[in-house]
Amino acid sequence: MSDPVSDPMSGPIAAEQVLALEGVVAGYGRAAPVLRGLSVTVRAGEVVCLVGPNGAGKSTALKVASGLLAPRSGRVMLAGRDVTGLTPQRLLALGLAHVLQGHSVFREMTVAENVRLGGYTVRDQARLDARIEVVKELFPVVAERWGSMAGLLSGGQQKQVEFARALMLEPSVVLLDEPSMGLDPRNTQVVFDQIDLMRRAGVAVLLVEQNARRALEMADVGCVLDLGRVHISGPARELAADPRLGRLYLGGQPAT
Amino acid sequence: MTLLLQGLALGVLTGGLYALLASGLSLYFGVMRVVMVAHPAFLFLAAYLTYTAHTAFGVDPFLALPVTVPLFFALGVAVQRLLVARLAPDNLAMMSVLLTFGLALTIEGLLGTFYTGSYRSVSMDYATRSLTVGGVHLPYDKIIAFSVAALTLAVLFAVLVKSRFGRALRATIQHREAARLVGIPTERVAGYGFGVGLATAAVGGAVLALITPFFPASHWVWIGKLMAVIVVGGLGSVVGAALAAVLLGVVEGVVLVTVDATWATMMFYVFLFLTLLVRPQGFFGGRLAHRF
């Protein structure tokens, strides 16, 4: 599979560009690629939101960024360093965390075990204990249900456990795949508040959301994906108001 | 009444052994969705090695374990890394049946070549007597088998629940992608999981050598029984398999003394069919099994 795109956006890496996908081509098995030259950049303290129809490659983009899927061509840059093809374990050590779509708690473990596993790669117990106190404060539900089996929690609570687990190692880049999926409005608000907190803490957030209008309202930059490439991108608020977006991708969706 | 008690007591003892023999199968399926048809063949490979250690060197069956357990662990890691890991993920369960069926035949063939087709057994003086409690006879070999099984399972559970490796293994079982994202090397962990499963076969084989005569094709009798145990228990649940093993052991024991041996063996399949009809996800491993 040859690289069809040499992307003009992949210029010199500015210091604050924490995460950059550059001309990424990726797919599963021998099937046609899902991403066909995708380029996205996320800066520190910025929320970049990927929107687009099903199959556009939003989740795949996150999997390439976190090392779950190796790209066929193109590069993944993290803090100015080429990290293409590194394992999730290495990327975690370099400050990247990924919260998967749907429910990804370890269902038959307690909330405590789930959160502690967020620090699996770190042996420094004192550091982990200190971080546990921090995430318990960030997510009161985690503290309240500390001894409960994670699989018995409600969807919103499970999502907060996943956030807490992902934040255990103080990541500088967080990838969030449809964090509000299946949540009621109150829990959705909690999730979006948490994203805002991460942004203020200087974390670079790459967000995928079905709830596009809502996500674009809070994001800094929006990218509309179609067929594995960025179709339209720009300041999120302008994009939310762009009539092309409504016609192309949001027409069938309930505005919230 | 004494007869019933006798059946019950023997059933519990045998059930404990079934729990040990089936625990490896649960691990393979839980960690890797692998249906390991060759597990009983490895059990009897261990039984033959125990036999050789005993007849050639006069080693007690259980004193051979410090050699056979690490050996089987290494074998398990090798089987996973060199063979199972190469199967395509989309039809892993089905292809693993074929692969491990081939392994079982290979082991059976090798055993036939080296040991001939005759029956072998290891008989120890201490295992031939029996203990009588209130008219119920408890053969020492069955008591030893139960004790070894209980001890091995206790160690296995302690490793799974308490150790860092155990947490990594359970995380890999419960959500593989999430496990990779917290930095668990899931491939290596899966290999070790397979190794632990086969290590239980080394212990199980030593016990089998002590309590039953065997020949190279003995394993075929066991695969059906053990598969029934893990389906009734809930595929992939180690605890579920242990509970189902004791349940089926007791049912078998009671039917054996009250009806006959044919029906006793049949009870495994009666329970298998009942489980598939009433609660296909198994009786004890429900929550985990739901995800398949």
TrEMBL record, chain A:
<dbReference type="GO" id="GO:0005524">
    <property type="term" value="F:ATP binding"/>
</dbReference>
<keyword id="KW-0029">Amino-acid transport</keyword>
<keyword id="KW-0547">Nucleotide-binding</keyword>
<keyword id="KW-0067">ATP-binding</keyword>
<comment type="similarity">
    <text>Belongs to the ABC transporter superfamily.</text>
</comment>
<dbReference type="InterPro" id="IPR052156">
    <property type="entry name" value="BCAA_Transport_ATP-bd_LivF"/>
</dbReference>
<protein>
    <submittedName>
        <fullName>Branched-chain amino acid transport system ATP-binding protein</fullName>
    </submittedName>
</protein>
<dbReference type="GO" id="GO:0015807">
    <property type="term" value="P:L-amino acid transport"/>
</dbReference>
<dbReference type="InterPro" id="IPR003593">
    <property type="entry name" value="AAA+_ATPase"/>
</dbReference>
<keyword id="KW-0813">Transport</keyword>
<dbReference type="Pfam" id="PF00005">
    <property type="entry name" value="ABC_tran"/>
</dbReference>
<dbReference type="InterPro" id="IPR027417">
    <property type="entry name" value="P-loop_NTPase"/>
</dbReference>
<feature type="domain" description="ABC transporter">
    <location>
        <begin position="19"/>
        <end position="252"/>
    </location>
</feature>
<dbReference type="GO" id="GO:0016887">
    <property type="term" value="F:ATP hydrolysis activity"/>
</dbReference>
<dbReference type="InterPro" id="IPR003439">
    <property type="entry name" value="ABC_transporter-like_ATP-bd"/>
</dbReference>
<dbReference type="GO" id="GO:0015658">
    <property type="term" value="F:branched-chain amino acid transmembrane transporter activity"/>
</dbReference>
Automatic annotation (TrEMBL), chain B:
<feature type="transmembrane region" description="Helical">
    <location>
        <begin position="92"/>
        <end position="115"/>
    </location>
</feature>
<keyword id="KW-0813">Transport</keyword>
<comment type="similarity">
    <text>Belongs to the binding-protein-dependent transport system permease family. LivHM subfamily.</text>
</comment>
<protein>
    <submittedName>
        <fullName>Branched-chain amino acid transport system permease protein</fullName>
    </submittedName>
</protein>
<dbReference type="InterPro" id="IPR052157">
    <property type="entry name" value="BCAA_transport_permease"/>
</dbReference>
<keyword id="KW-1133">Transmembrane helix</keyword>
<feature type="transmembrane region" description="Helical">
    <location>
        <begin position="189"/>
        <end position="214"/>
    </location>
</feature>
<feature type="transmembrane region" description="Helical">
    <location>
        <begin position="29"/>
        <end position="50"/>
    </location>
</feature>
<keyword id="KW-0472">Membrane</keyword>
<feature type="transmembrane region" description="Helical">
    <location>
        <begin position="143"/>
        <end position="161"/>
    </location>
</feature>
<dbReference type="Pfam" id="PF02653">
    <property type="entry name" value="BPD_transp_2"/>
</dbReference>
<dbReference type="GO" id="GO:0006865">
    <property type="term" value="P:amino acid transport"/>
</dbReference>
<keyword id="KW-0029">Amino-acid transport</keyword>
<keyword id="KW-0812">Transmembrane</keyword>
<feature type="transmembrane region" description="Helical">
    <location>
        <begin position="62"/>
        <end position="80"/>
    </location>
</feature>
<dbReference type="GO" id="GO:0022857">
    <property type="term" value="F:transmembrane transporter activity"/>
</dbReference>
<feature type="transmembrane region" description="Helical">
    <location>
        <begin position="226"/>
        <end position="248"/>
    </location>
</feature>
<keyword id="KW-1003">Cell membrane</keyword>
<feature type="transmembrane region" description="Helical">
    <location>
        <begin position="254"/>
        <end position="278"/>
    </location>
</feature>
<dbReference type="GO" id="GO:0005886">
    <property type="term" value="C:plasma membrane"/>
</dbReference>
<dbReference type="InterPro" id="IPR001851">
    <property type="entry name" value="ABC_transp_permease"/>
</dbReference>
